[in-house]
Amino acid sequence: LEVILTTTIDKLGKTGDVVKVAPGHFRNHLMPKMLAVPNLDKFAILVREQRKLYQHEEEVVVKQVTKEDNDARLQEERLKQYQAAAKRLDNALLVLRRFISTGNELRTPVTKDEIVSEVARQLNITIHPENLHLQSPLASLGEFELPLRLPQDI
């Protein structure tokens, strides 16, 4: 049985296509849900008129994205993410707990790798150890300000 599809159906066809289906499938499934109509002249004219009315909605303008445009957009997004992370790191307070031995001395000094892992854990920001400027491991109690080496555009 030839029918005209009123909606796009996977594995069957697009709207307005004339396809062959089993009579039972049309009678029990497609027709009750108004997914297809019989292939008669009056229905064909009706479907054609509807396509003319609604065709502008179906048209999709596709802009071809070149690799350069895509790369530039990705770099711009990364730069925004880096700037947001730098802003969060600017006044961030990182708390590390350590055992102390005598006075203000720590039993085990805090290394650059531990600071990087704590920044990732507490602030959800990944920084590379080479960007953190730490001359020697932190061996005493107190508050420390640690400079980061970041690109100038950030």
UniProtKB/TrEMBL annotation:
GO terms for cellular component: ribonucleoprotein complex; ribosome. Residues 81-154 form the Large ribosomal subunit protein bL9 C-terminal domain. Belongs to the bacterial ribosomal protein bL9 family. Residues 2-38 form the Ribosomal protein L9 domain. The keyword Ribonucleoprotein applies. GO terms for molecular function: rRNA binding; structural constituent of ribosome. Keywords: Ribonucleoprotein, Ribosomal protein, RNA-binding, rRNA-binding. The keyword Plastid does not apply. It comes from Miscanthus sinensis (Chinese silver grass). It holds the Pfam family Ribosomal_L9_N. InterPro entries: Ribosomal_bL9 (IPR000244), Ribosomal_bL9/RNase_H1_N (IPR009027), Ribosomal_bL9_C (IPR020069), Ribosomal_bL9_C_sf (IPR036791), Ribosomal_bL9_N (IPR020070), Ribosomal_bL9_N_sf (IPR036935). GO terms for biological process: translation. This is Large ribosomal subunit protein bL9c.
